[in-house]
Amino acid sequence: MRYKLAEDAKPQLALLLLATVITLILWFLPYAEYLVYPIRLFVTFIHEASHALVAFFTGGSVQSLSISPDGSGVVYSASTGWLSPLLTGSAGYLGTTAFGVLLLVLIRRSISPQRILLGSGLFIGIITLFFGVLAPMFNMFSLQVSFATVMFTILAGTLLAAGLVLMAAYASTRLASFAVAFLAVQCLLNALSDLKTLFFINASFGGSEIQNDAANMAVATGLPGLVWVFIWMGLSILMISLGLRFYAVAKNRAQHDLPFED
After folding, report:
1. Contact (CB, 8 A) for 54 and 99
2. Which strands, in side-by-side order, build the sheet including 260-261?
3. Helix axes 147-170, 173-202, angle to 10 degrees
4. pLDDT at 166 over 60
5. 4-40 burial code (b ≥16 CB/10 A, e <16)
6. To the nearest whole number, what is the mean pLDDT of the chain?
């Protein structure tokens, strides 16, 4: 099967490459983390929301979803059986990657970038309401996070949701398109970057005593945390590869001089 770069994908691909270059530059600029701080919180919300939603839809109960000012997050949930904890523990990094790929797919299907931003804002708002407000409220006597953390989660979720909705309402199509591409790149690259960090944490020389998703999976399954890191890396790279191929290329059976080939 042969592939070529789709003509209608070229403007979108240019935006995606621009967003990628800007993201990589920001990684090496001093104090740039302050510029992308809201985006980092957005990615953390997607990560933790993935844990919470999978726990909920596999029969578990979610006590709280919380985001800390340093950009970290945690979901406390209770699950029964073996499948729910397995899927819930794997959902964070894979869910973040899947969300980034979903944004690429929506762009490729010519969904209005304003609608994508609106949907993203509503998603953050709903997650904040149900898992950041209502869940801690109903589990206040067994809550494992501080009141200050709960309040920060509500504030951050509300501001992120409002910002995305306002951008959807008032941003030009070009700016909205770049914003969606930038969010997609941030989700994808941050997921991979966080998995790299997770690798060093769970390597024998990296201090595996630090609490993290892979360590939790090791306790739940008996497989070393490093094994789970490699599984998640492989699945994330596969999803990104498929998403980029869908985003950028088009099948063509007639031509024989195309640049991509299976």
Report:
1. no
2. 249-251, 2-5, 260-261
3. 150
4. yes
5. bebeebeebbebbeebbeebeeeeeeeeeeeebeebb
6. 83
